[in-house]
Amino acid sequence: MEDHIRFDAEACALLLLDQRKLPLVEETFACRTVDDVIYALQTMVVRGAPAIGVTAAYGCRIALKQAMAAGAYWTNELGRLLGFLAQARPTAVNLAWAVNEMRGAASGVADPRELGDVWLALAQKIHAEDIAMNKAMGRFGGELLADGDTVMTHCNAGALATAGYGTALGVIRGAVDMGKKISVIANETRPFLQGARLTAYELHKDGIPVTVACDNACSLLMKRGLVQKVVVGADRIVANGDVANKIGTSGVAILARHYGIPFYVAAPSSTFDLATPEGSLIPIEDRTPLEVTHVGGTQITPDGVPVFNYAFDVTDHSLITGIVTERGVLSPPYTSSIAEIIGQERRP
After folding, report:
1. CA 343 to CA 216: how far, in whole Å?
2. Average pLDDT over residues 313-335
3. d(Cα 30, Cα 23) in Å, to the nearest integer?
4. Sign of the torsion formed by the C-alpha atoms of 160, 126, 91 and 332
5. In contact, 78 and 64? CB cutoff 8 Å
6. Are 168 and 152 in contact (CB under 8 A)?
7. CA angle 120-267-183, nearest 5°?
8. Which of 25, 141, 170, 273 sits in a 20 to 30 Å window from 266, CA-based?
9. 177 closest CA partner among 194, 165, 188
């Protein structure tokens, strides 16, 4: 699945498979302005850290076209639009990473038309490299799974959360590509139900056995020996190995440690934030209460009752067995393995 993010260069439009409508309706959402891109990011038309990064890269190209309408002041307008875009989702570090990559490529390019060509080529490169990184992660991570394993995953870290193939689901696909028989338990992942709607959708289409479980069934399933491994994605990994991922991930990690089940995180190098030393410093997005107070159009909570709807939590590095990247599997102590493998990659 690699066609859920497409860019029409002639129209300068980003075409996204609207993940809010899945699994029952496959519909395209077209982004022609920066406001469209920000709306798509904030309302979860597209989600998942790597997919957010790819979307942001194409969003920069859209911002450039929009800024050119300002004439001689296009650079000021472009800077303003890129600032808005970079702040659209605060937790997923890939968003700011992609915008900064595009800004870096603009250095020394004075002609906006030339910059448009440079940026489109770079966005396409980021798109293609994400798929390649996911497949590399799949090969490394697939080695960690045994034939016959049932793997629990939380949220959706598959093709839909990336440019294609997936991070956590890429590990599962990598094991399947090796000829291993793998089954998956997809936690439903309240309140947006990415596991029930999106992970189950992807794996079912691929013919990989998948069963959806209520989030609060994790302990029972693990206690009964129905889970051999846990593999999740990440929205940000900081310097000491703490991981921000979809709300509920930390609880799954704690349960996995209690029951002696290996807990793996799969993420590309663009998801690492080496400037942040530990997880308590990661900004956590607080989303609209409507995602909790309503199911579809039906209100399920009393009027006037407040809601906690934090989109992410932070899993302590001490609970993580290994972090799968496109460069290999990182092992504890993560402060040194991240600095060596990810930090070395980023040195000039």
Report:
1. 37
2. 98
3. 19
4. positive
5. yes
6. no
7. 120
8. 25
9. 165
- CA-CA distance, 329 to 264, in Å (whole number)? 9
Q: How many CB atoms sit inside 10 A of residue 293's CB?
A: 18
Q: What is the DSSP string of 289-324?
A: THHHHEETTEE-S-TT-----BSEEEE-GGG-SEEE
Instruction: Give the global pTM.
Output: 0.89
The percent of residues above 70 in pLDDT, for the chain, comes to 98
pLDDT of 160 above 80 = yes
Q: Which candidate in 18, 36, 235, 313 is catalytic? A: 235
User: Is-catalytic flag, 235?
Assistant: yes
Query: Which is more confidently placed, 39 or 109?
Result: 39
pLDDT of residue 108: 86
Nearest-angstrom CA–CA distance, 272 and 120 = 24
CB-based contact 321:221 (threshold 8 Å): no
In the structure, what pLDDT confidence band is assigned to residue 345 with cuts at 50, 70 and 90? Answer: low
H/E element, 184: strand 183-187
Confidence of residue 93 (pLDDT cuts 50, 70, 90): confident
Cα Rg of the chain, angstroms: 20
285 alpha carbon, distance to own chain's centre: 14
Q: Max Cα separation, the chain?
A: 67
Pairing of strands 229-232, 294-295: unpaired
- Which of 244 and 90 is assigned the larger pLDDT? 244
